[in-house]
Every structure is written in C-alpha cells, then in structure tokens.
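Per reviewer request, we include the raw input and output of the structure prediction for the construct analysed in the revised manuscript.
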Amino acid sequence: MPEFMVMAVSRTEDPEEGSVAEKHLTPGDLALRVGVPIGTVYQWNSRGGGPRFMKIGKYVRYKMADVAAWEESQYVDQATG
C-alpha cells in the first residue's frame, strides 16, 4: 500500500493581505472554485463576464479579492409578485 507524505509549506503572512499563497488563482483554480470548465474561464477573459484578471508575462492570474467581489456581484434578486 502506498504511503503519502504531507509537506508543510511556510507562508509569509501579511495581516492585511493574508498569506502569499492565497493571493492569486490560476484559470484552472478559478474553474475549480466556481465549477465551470476551464474553457469558460478563457471565454470570460476574452469576451468579458468573469472576474478582473491580470497578466504576469504570459500568465493570467486572479486576485482573491477580485474573485470574491465578482462572486458577490453574481447574486440574482428574485422578483416577487
């Protein structure tokens, strides 16, 4: 039976920003977080509709604060009547 190793990763903490590892998501991370195919995330990037993103060289990254703000904006108020 295989044994699995668990490794602890040391993170630099900033009280205002959170840990370094939690600041940015990849397109794959975002797709997993919201439960959509990664192709949908790429469509949002090119056509609009997704969270704000940044380009670091050729890489797309999302700040957690931007993702959280976008998620909050996705709520739909039900019409009553």
